[in-house]
Model the fold of this input.
Amino acid sequence: MAAALNEDYQRTLHEQKKEVHELVMAGLEQIKEGKTKDFNTVCARLEKKYRDEATSN
Done:
């Protein structure tokens, strides 16, 4: 039972890391496209989006 829970936790953690990576890469792409010049603004917007998605799930 504990091993199954640990596997679920590891899988969930891996998926969350993957999602964060994708969001950061999307933010960097926005900067490259000239949609924004402030990386902190991009990170704040992505963090808010990620937090909102996490709370709605």
Q: What stands out?
A: The chain is about 85% helix and 0% strand.
